[in-house]
Amino acid sequence: MTFYRRGKKAVRTMVLSAGLVLMATAAVAAGAPKYVFYFIGDGMGPAQRQSAQYFYKMETKNPDARLLMNSLDTSALVTTHSDNTLVTDSAAGGTALATGFKTTNGLVGKLPDGTNVKTIAEAARDAGYAVGLATTTRITHATPASFSAHNMSRGNENEIAVDQLNANFDYLAGGGFRHFVAKGNADGLKSKRKDGRDLVAEFKTKGYTTFIGDKARDAFRAYEPKKGEKVLAPLSYSALGMEIDRRFSTQKENAMPALSELTAKGIETLTAQEKPFFLMVEGGRIDYAAHCNDAAGTIYDTLALDAALAEAYAFYKKHPEETLIVVAADHETGGMAMGISLDSKGYFLKLDELFKVKASVEDVLTYVYPQMITDYPEVASRQKAYLAYVADNFGLTDLNARELKKLKAAMAVEDRNQTLKAEQQTTYGYAYTPTMIAVAHLVSERARISWTSYVHTSSVIALSAVGYQAEQFDGFRDNTDIPRIMAGIMGVKLSSFDAVPSKALLGKTVGPNEKYSKIPYGHTENVAGKN
User: Fold this and answer.
1) How far apart are CA 176 and CA 144, in angstroms?
2) Does pTM surpass 0.70?
């Protein structure tokens, strides 16, 4: 396993090599794959993959049905610890998957001492590949940032957007226009930029066709890429909507393109460049759903990633000798497990309960009871309305005494508008409302799915691959192995430093860096742009 080397010599080497790269014009190595796809399920552990497969069998009424990601030729298990802790965050996990180096939680594209490390996407670009990134989160979020930026904090998304401008990749699609548009822009879009820069205009001057906000979604779908045209498409204020809401809601913010559409458009855009390409696709909202223990939301977004994979697989079938596809994850989220002991007859799952769920916990349910507090001043009427809502949208009908008690206790906490005590945070999570978590847990219990955490775990993740030299990924791996194997297959060069052991493996777990520690690990933002 390769980690990092500290020291001024390493920094000087990186600066020099970066300068040479900018002046170099490289060609794709002879014998290398022409088309490389890198799929990452954020928070997608083995239980997320397997529960989605069981659900898919039931949905299709086909006992032989399998997820495509679970059907590829090569498989592996992968460890995910970061440099400073055995439980990684998405920044350190993404950096390991992108660069082959461990780093401190919170850093993107950097070693713990601040040294920049080249990403596989940058190495591909420098070797002559067209490069694209697609995600259901913000384009500036931790995973895509780890492939396209270098910053001491994943929270510096305005700076990360500038790095992405300078990266000069061919295709960037997802959410998060707030970090690209200028304050006071003519379209009236909300911005989080504080420097007065209009990055959208700057992208345009570099030859990008831009699609900004939900009003651009139809134009994005209709766009026919041409050679020499690059694409910037942050289609929402924050993350794109969750798949379950996209499927069942008619609200315009949830009518966004699916991840499969972003993938297909990425393939079209990169193919139009008439050269080899590298495309990273992130199913980012698997993680969001698992953070708040939303079983149905987790499964639907895992299925969305599998549908995106199908777009790449169809391309692979046309170019089987020239294409490599790798499916991985940055970590597991939530400690998801299939099975829960509620009684002496606990050896079964009831995933059919999840077919009754028609909305996400985080993006939809978060706001329902707080709004009802305004709409229904009388407590009894309010609670009756909420029970009716969760019955209709989450399948929680015929509540037994224990379930009703759990829901009423959660509503009572919000009725009193009290600050959660430490023991209540253990029950309801530190960043969520009691009512949303109570519903999430009751739905999971009925499906016999259990959770151990509201954050990430150190569980291994599953990797699968198919195509050109995919067998090289086989075995029990570390996340740093994946981009190094990929770089070797592609004939591109990542950064090279002497290896030192991860502090976490030496039992020297430390907290996140001071700057990052101010940023919550959870995902409390909603796609409608409440934050």
Assistant:
1) 12
2) yes
